[in-house]
Amino acid sequence: MTRCAKGNHDFPVEDEHGARCDIHGVTLVWHGPPITEDNLPGDDGPSRIARPTLGPAPSQRPH
Ligand SMILES: [Zn+2]
């Protein structure tokens, strides 16, 4: 978690895009490339980041 810039607490909302504290009205946006699985320490958890896919699946396209 990330500490709120205006309060002595962690951001209640934090995701891959940034962190937000509605209490103090602070929004933090991560700079640089988004964090991917390659940036996460692996080999110690089965959790994977599920990304929603938009549009039809390419495998359904007739050849
Ligand atoms: Zn805060």
Ordered list of secondary-structure elements with their pairings:
Layout: E1 13-14, E2 18-21, E3 26-29
Describe this structure in words.
With 63 residues, this protein is mainly β. The mean pLDDT is 78. The protein has no helices and three strands. The protein is elongated and about 55 Å long. Helices cover 0% and strands 16% of the residues. The chain has a domain at 1-36.
Number of helices: 0
Q: Please, what is the average pLDDT?
A: 78
Q: Which sheet architecture does the biggest sheet show?
A: 3 strands, antiparallel
In percent, how much strand structure appears in the residues? 15-25%
User: Tally of extended strands?
Assistant: 3
* Cα end-to-end separation: 47 Å
The main sheet orders its strands as 1-2-3
N-to-C SSE string, H for helix and E for strand: EEE
Structural class of the helix and strand makeup? mainly beta
> Which ligands appear in the coordinates?
zinc ion
Low-confidence stretches: none
Radius of gyration: 17 Å
